[in-house]
Design goal:
With 157 residues, the protein is α+β, with helices and mostly antiparallel strands. Helices cover 19% and strands 19% of the residues. Strand 4, helix 3 and strand 5 form a beta-alpha-beta unit. Helix 2 packs across helix 3. The structure holds zinc ion. The site of zinc ion (ZN) has 8 residues, from helix 3.
Length: 157
């Protein structure tokens, strides 16, 4: 059953209002997932002072990366003396760290030198395999600890 009424035929004309076009909707957020900062993922392992001092090394470009691959790298960090840092990415995604400075005896190195190295890694975008998630990542010790280099100052008297 249908009714056939011309309801709009007698409506008064509406005033003509120019409505500005609405702004275009914002572009959809890029689908590219945000890549995590490796330093952020392991940050909780580092004492604040190590982060502060490590940042200074990083900001003064004291970090030189070497042997960079997706599974590890070495770094020289120039402070009062040069310390050697080694990072290894294990197959299960864990990150092992070592450093030749005295702080390494506390287990996995979470010292200023490793922090400076992590900041440099983030700057260069290395270790992409660790950047797919923001989840916290525990630092573990290297399988083979770094040996402290013999320095002239360490010679016995
Ligand atoms: Zn160190």
């Amino acid at each position: 059953m249908s009714t056939n009424t011309a309801s709009t035929a007698s409506s008064p004309p509406l005033p003509l209002v120019v409505v500005p076009a609405p702004p275009p909707p914002p572009a959809p957020a890029a689908v590219v997932p945000k890549r995590a900062s490796v330093a952020d993922r392991v940050a909780r392992a580092f004492p604040p002072l190590a982060c502060v001092r490590g940042y200074r090394y990083f900001a003064r470009r004291r970090v030189a990366l070497a042997n960079v691959s997706e599974t590890g790298l070495d770094a020289d960090v120039r402070g009062q003396r040069v310390q050697h840092v080694r990072l290894r990415v294990h197959a299960d995604g864990r990150l092992a760290s070592g450093c030749t400075c005295a702080a390494k005896i506390l287990g996995p190195a979470a010292c200023r030198h490793v922090w400076a190295t992590l900041l440099e890694i983030d700057r260069q975008g290395a270790f992409d395999a660790l950047r797919g998630t923001q989840r916290a990542l525990a630092l573990i010790a290297l399988d083979a600890p770094l040996k402290r280099p013999k320095t002239k100052k360490a010679v016995k008297r």
